[in-house]
Amino acid sequence: MMSRMEIGKRRKKAVRVFLGFLGVMGVCTGVSRGIYAYQMPQVETGRAAGKSISHEVSVSGVVEAARERDVVVAEGVRVQEICVKAGEKVEKGKVLMRVDVADLEELTQDVGEKIKLEEEKIAAAVESKRAAGQTAQKARQRAERELQNAREVQDQAVSDARSAYERAKEKWEEYPARGDFLEEKVKKDVEYQVYKRQAERNGATQEDRDTFDIYKEKLVSSAEAEWEEGKKALREDLEQKRAALSTAKADRKSAVLQAKRAVGEAGDTEPVDESAQLEGKNAIEQLRKQREGFQKLLDSKGKVVSETDGYVTECCVKAGDRTADSAAILLADGSRGWNFRAVLTEEQTQLLSTGDTVTLTFQNGKLKEEDCVISAIRPTEDGTYEAVATASGKDHFLGETGSLERTDKSRQFSCCVPLSALYSDNNKDYVLLMREVDTILGTEWSVVKKEVTVVDQNESDAALEDGSLQEEDEIVVFASKAVAPGDKVRLVESGEDTDDEE
Asked: What angle, rounded to 10 degrees, do the helices at 206-268 and 178-188 form?
């Protein structure tokens, strides 16, 4: 059996071992909690506040002339020398370019010959027109005489036909009636009278009376046939004369109409093309203007000088070229003011509009121009946009650089959060609220999702719909790593480094 002393020693040793075990377990637990806490996302929190949302635009740009002057030289002249370069400042009277004088003299002579040729063409056309006019006049006079003659001839033919018709009509109307014709025929027949007296005398025989009756019957039958033939002949003659009159009238109408048409055609004759003469006159006018331009260059001995102070923006020709009908050199003189042109992104175009006022800054902030008006906002070929503002100052120069700035403040919003506190999922915006939860390791912080509606925002803040958050709501405004709803997080303590060391 062990003594009490040995038992006591063993107990002490067991207590020391147990205490050591508890110490090791405490250290392990502490290390585990440390590792667990270390792996949690570190977050900073904040609360919604009332404020206004400012929208700022600040872009760089350059000064350009509000208007460019075209230096136009007579077309077709050979350029001998360009005396300036793009961007160069020039004074009034400065020689901009020289042209080939010998070539200019040849061109002037050629233009003179072309003018003479066109004038001769026009003179020939005028003479041709005059001769053609005389021929046309004679043809018209002849056609008018033929018209008059046609009227006279056809009028006479109609008159003759009408007279013949009237005579035939009179004969028809005067032809005796059947009874009158028979009575007159019987009265004039001698044999009838003889046979009648014999048949009516005293002592006339039956043979005498029969002879009279037979003769009378033959006479009446013959007279009736003659009356019918005469009436038929008159009717046919009347119809013929009526048809002849109608034909004469139609012939007159046709003949006169044809003669009138001939008169019209003779009057419409125009052998000379008037448009050709007009083109010739226009050509002469253009040639004379061209000669005047050549002569102006000859008078200046081929020198083209600037008529104003300004800057050369572009040389459109080079030595050896021939001038076109467009500008040879473009000058910006600033006489109509200056424009400031800046490049914008598509998002920035939503913050600026034509008519807005902006601030232009030059010389590294030493010179500012307030209330400059935006005159245009337009897309460019490279997919960006450009804004053009009117610079109010007069002491600018072409190509001067500067910046365009504008700040707009919205109305006061009651619920604003940092833009870093805003998350989005499936086109829906939300924030993460802090909530305390009980776990086997004790009380911990977790984040929950709260959907919100954004009514305005800028580069740093977002305004939420009124009532989206309560005053006491703590929201995540920064996280050291990605955080999702339901994640456990730990708050950043003062002075603690929030960098993610994974």
From this structure: 130
Asked whether 303 and 328 are in contact (CB, 8 A), the reply is no
Listed as ranges, residues in the chain with pLDDT below 70 are: 1-39, 66-68, 267-274, 333-337, 393-395, 410, 440-442, 493-502
What is the rounded end-to-end Cα distance, in angstroms, of the chain?
60
Nearest to 434 by CA among 42, 39, 45, 36: 45
For residue 492, the 8-state DSSP code is P
Q: Degrees (nearest 5) of the Cα angle 277, 118, 106?
A: 150
In 3D space, the residue among 72, 67, 69 whose CA is nearest the CA of residue 317 turns out to be 72
Read off the pTM: 0.43
> pLDDT tens for residues 22-62?
665 544 444 444 444 456 788 888 888 888 887 778 888 88
In order, the DSSP letters of 291-336 are HHHHHHHHHTTTEEE-SS-EEEEEE---TT-B--SS-SEEEE--TT
Of 483, 479, 499, the residue nearest 420 (C-alpha): 479
Residue 474 and residue 47 in contact, taking contact as beta carbons nearer than 8 Å: yes
Return the ∠ at Cα 182 (arms to 176 and 188), rounded to 5°.
105
d(CA 112, CA 123): 17
